[in-house]
Design goal:
This protein has about 180 residues and is of the alpha+beta class. It has a single domain (about 5-160), classed as Yope Regulator, Chain: A (2-Layer Sandwich), CATH 3.30.1460. Helices cover about 35% and strands about 25% of the residues. Helix 1 (about 5-20) crosses helix 3. The longest helix is centred in the last third of the chain and has 24 residues, at about 115-135. The two termini are about 20 Å apart.
């Protein structure tokens, strides 16, 4: 990793860890990913992509249903159109297993822990919405959200309050 990319991304992750009450957040050496678990159920990955100078925040929201597959895929694509139903993130499908992913790429330049935390909280909110959609099979009404609109969620929506993070609502997974 280049020194400036490495320094910036480690700094952002360290700042996020300080807010969450973790002193040892780090990217895994094998796949450059750090995994966080929100509320004991929602696993959010933070992956480095040095080639594009980005940090990608991602989550597998579920699996495509066997029934209504066409309608579900159509709805997911509609949500992707100008990010109307994803607040700037992108929904995608892993074809072999049918897993549906939600991901958002962030430019690493100037990235800090506050911005990273806000994107994680926003992605968690969106992931819960689309995860519920996949589970229930009902097609929700997609409401447009400007890509530059501030998120209406915070970590407190997923973990009571940020100060309670160390009590177990947000945890770090060490894949080693």
């Amino acid at each position: 990793m280049s020194d400036s990319f490495n320094t910036q991304t480690i700094k952002a992750l360290t700042e996020l860890g300080e807010v969450l009450g973790f002193s040892d957040l780090e990217f895994d050496d094998e796949d450059d990913t750090c995994l966080l678990q929100l509320d004991g159920k929602l696993e959010i990955g933070i992956t480095l992509n040095e080639a594009s100078n980005e940090v990608v925040v991602h989550h597998c929201i579920g699996r495509l249903p066997e029934e209504n597959r066409y309608d579900v895929v159509e709805q997911l694509l509609e949500a992707n159109l100008f990010w109307a139903g994803t607040r700037g993130a992108t929904l995608s499908i892993e074809r072999e297993r049918g897993d549906v992913f939600l991901a958002r790429a962030l430019n690493a330049n100037g990235l800090d822990g506050a911005r990273l935390g806000a994107v994680i909280a926003d992605l968690a909110d969106i992931a819960e919405y689309w995860g519920a959609f996949l589970e229930k099979g009902t097609i929700p009404q997609v409401k447009g959200v400007a890509t530059d609109a501030p998120s209406q969620v915070s970590f407190s929506d997923h973990s009571q309050t940020i100060s309670e993070a160390s009590s177990g609502n947000i945890s770090v997974h060490d894949k080693k």
